[in-house]
Amino acid sequence: MPANQTTLMTANEAASVTGVPLRQVHRIIDAGLLGGAVKRRDKARLLAPTALVGLRLAHEMADVLTLQGRRAVVATSIRSPRQTMIRADVIVVDARPAARAVRSGLSLLTKARGIVSSTPDVLGGTPVFKGTRIPVHDIADMLANGDRPAAIIKAFPQLDAIARARGHGESTHVTWIGLRSRKDWVIVRRAIADGYVLVTNNTMDFMTLLQPEKVHAGLVCINVAHGLMSLDVQKRLFALALDRLEDHEPINELLEITLNENRSLQVERYDLPAAK
Questions:
Q1: Which domains does the chain have, with CATH numbers?
Q2: Which residues share a beta bridge with 9?
Q3: Collapsing DSSP states into helix, strand and coil, what is residue 122?
Q4: What residues contact 249, with CB distance under 8 A and at least 6 apart?
Q5: What is the DSSP code (8-state) at residue 275?
Q6: Contact 225/260 with Cβ under 8 angstroms?
Q7: How far apart are CA 13 and CA 108, in angstroms?
Q8: Mind listing the pLDDT tens digit for each residue in 97-136?
Q9: Rounded to whole angstroms, how far apart are CA atoms 48 and 41?
């Protein structure tokens, strides 16, 4: 494993590197199979790179070993990463294919990180593809949830077309007005000047930027728990937001739609800035 692979990884990254479906990654974590190799940071569950081979083995051995046997195999792979043959009950597990797959996945991830940037003033520092405002975790979730790359490429940007079809003829995307890689405050100034309702998945930073404004056209925030984003989810939540905006314009308001980890839906609408 490359020496620079000491950074903790998100579940999405671990799924990408190991080839284990994202839902199975979370289930393996929930089962406690990765032990102390799982860390918590700001409510997110992160994996140490030493857990990656064990993660793949835990997935591959699901129909072969008992839970106790899988736990023993994973523990050994984490404790002794150079061990190629791991005994579990009466079975000997060859860890070399899993290790090769992980090395290949790490190499691809390193290349992918070369096209990613993170700037505090762009989506609050959320990693995005360079030259865009598209969050990397959204694309990773979409791929992990079965969306095809060609469909994702075709879909960005797409929500503005949905809005126009619903009667919001002035709707546009930051790409079309030359702002796709610009800082958040530049987007806000343009929205206020031209009377645009802002649609984003970055609630806190845009709330902060709009809070001092006496008048703005409104803010719509669509939040999706990690691991649940897909093209279908994105479209459905945006359509719901458009439904909620039909009654009256969201002037000086925030409409927040959140899909939680348990797949429950939360819709809130309140004044921004807060009414005194």
A1: 9-114 (1.10.1660), 136-271 (no CATH)
A2: 47
A3: coil
A4: 197, 217, 218
A5: P
A6: yes
A7: 11
A8: 999 999 999 988 888 778 787 777 887 777 777 777 777 7
A9: 12
Structure tokens at 59: 């997935």
In 85-147, DSSP assigns E strands to: 85-88, 91-94, 116-117, 128-129
Question: Using omega within 30 degrees of 0 as the cis cutoff, is the peptide bond preceding 157 cis?
Answer: yes
User: Are the C-beta atoms of residues 201 and 135 closer than 8 Å to each other?
Assistant: yes
Nearest to 65 by CA among 42, 49, 86, 81: 86
Q: What is the pLDDT of residues 43-101, one digit of tens each?
A: 778 999 999 999 999 999 998 898 999 999 999 999 999 999 998 878 899 999 999 99
- For the record, the structure tokens of 255 come out as 């409409």
What is the helix (H) or strand (E) element at residue 114, kind and residue range? none
Residue with tokens 């070399």: 96
- Rounded Cα distance between 228 and 253, Å, is 26
Q: Write out the DSSP string of 239-266.
A: HHHHHHHSSS--TTEEEEEEE-TTS-EE
Please identify which residue in the block is written with the tokens 């792979």. 77
